[in-house]
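CORE FACILITY INTAKE
Project code: CF-77B
Contact: R.S. (postdoc)
Sample description: multi-component assembly, two entities in total
Requested service: structural model of the whole complex
Turnaround: standard
Below are the sequence entries exactly as provided by the requester. Do not edit them.
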Amino acid sequence: MNTARSPEPVLEIEDLQVHYRLRRGLLQPRRALRAVDGINLALQPGRTLGLVGESGCGKSTLIRTVLGLQKPTSGRILVQGWDINRLSPRALRAVRPRMQLVFQDPNSALNPRMTVHDIIAEPLRLQKRYSRARVEALLAQVGMPSGAGAQRPAAFSGGQRQRIGIARALALEPALLVLDEPVSALDVSIQAQVINLLDDLQQRLGLAYLFVAHDLSVVRHVSHDVAVMYLGRIVETGPRDAVFDRPAHPYTRSLMLAVPQPDLDARLEHAAAASRELPEPAPAATGCVFQPRCPRAQPRCVIEKPLLTPQDDSGHLAACWFPDC
Amino acid sequence: MTGAEPVLSVRDLSIGLPGALPGALPGPQGLVRVIDGVSFDVHANEVLCIVGESGSGKSLSMMACMGLLPDAAELLSGDILFNGQSLLAMPEAARRRLRGAGMAMVFQDPMSALNPLMRVGSQIAETLSLHQPGLGKAARRERVRQLLGLVHIVDPATRARSYPHELSGGMRQRVMIAMAMAHRPALLIADEPTTALDVTVQAQILALLADMRRETGAAQVLITHDLGVVAQVADRVAVLYSGRVVESGTVADIFRNPSHPYTIGLLASLLHPGNRRAYAIPGQPPTAAQRPPGCVFQPRCQLGEGRAACMGTVPPLQALSATQHSACLYPDEARALRTQPEGMRS
């Protein structure tokens, strides 16, 4: 899969660090929370990178930083080669339209008082690129009925509202869509429609997707490559099939085991996996981030921090001293 | 478990809400029948999963069982029996005694179900004092500790003094379950109890609910939209679509031999590694105010297209076996859909 690497990635994240300063109490010293702690990722045009992780792992901080809504503590974010944190405000305005966000909950992401036409026209008007025909073409592109533009979001179902959100994100012809849990608020029978639409759009427009989701079956379906994030770090990454078929990091494995499979034959296995309780995540002072919860932690894991190392020659990397394939 | 009297029996329940939706066609008295003739039973030691899309009436029917319907809602027909007694005929005082002691509910979002200004221990103690007013203060504190221990909360004495915001999502849901278990109810209703939680925590909460059932033999109703959860925990399943039960049966009936086109479509839309295209049921579910005549699923159904019988009358739930019921007029054709070539595999 990785042989088709084109020379210029749409998005490159280089050794990104984002720390927040916390103060627990008035007299206690400030402490840094390493929300993103040394992340490297690259995304090519026409490809989907699935980002998986539980709440608190730093996914949202990573997204905010990629979109330029949060300043990194160190490291670089390159969008089509432009370092978004080194650009003049004027140059940034030119680069920003190339990356767009699709939100999780289309109900709160669309202004209920605006017509669908005005919602999609808004980014075009801001960039002085508005035309009625362009808005209509965008609506048709996401499979909305003609005449939908005159109505307000309330007239549409959740799946259709998500289509409107996607049309708005496509208005300025972005190269990168950041999709933050784009189908998790939708019903099962509607999820598939939106997933197929995203697939069509990627084929047609060559978009790159950074697809953030907690539903592993969705991530497995849509992604070319997958990155598993845990407490601010990528603990495993690689081509989709390598990561899902041969998970090397114990955290990836416990995530996969925890997902209830729609398969009656897996009932006993699932119950067994659930009974092996993972303790609550707590950052380790030294060594591996996952070590306090790891069932197979060794003395070395407490002392030395494991780096992402190749598991084979497919680009499958895992940060574990004792990976198993 | 057949033969024994069900703990909860819902019979032909219909509930109306005022038709405030734009373009609604209000029914009698301006009410929209959000729930339209729903029936199901739950027995002791059994998990019934109620599956359906948002707006299918899953939560509202459970609120009716708990006696927690919003004021605007109106019972249009049917009855709800708890251990053989009609809940609807019961005076409110008796129902209040039953709520918490005989039946309890766990909600989707523990953060909004817990009082943010009260320590969690005091909230559990409040439940105890409502139904066991004789319990002394020290005994109550001890019982709170026991209950928190029961749901595997580490260091219950300290945790009892925490406020909800100091706990993780999983711990809050454990507190909710501890509260629900305080009086060992015969019926526990859990409305999407793990939807707001991470997968690893979800697995723990599902295991905890199974522990609670083994411990007390209670009947459990689990509302969920996640077919993975259903496959892992259900004994029996009721599939709701637009306010009606379209299919019910054992978990094996539903997963191995589904006999309603909607159930089949739901199973087919599960994502499988290897399928490049996801199967999508065409169209959108109708709103309760704009149900099509006849079978509610007919406009989206491959079998129903153009068939007068499907558009004519509401198909009743018919027994296909001792355990399985389907509200499809053509269950044999529905089963044949599963083997059709156009990507509709599961």
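Facility notes:
- Chain A touches chain B through 46 residues (CB under 8 Å).
- The longest helix of chain A spans residues 188-205.
Invoice: internal transfer
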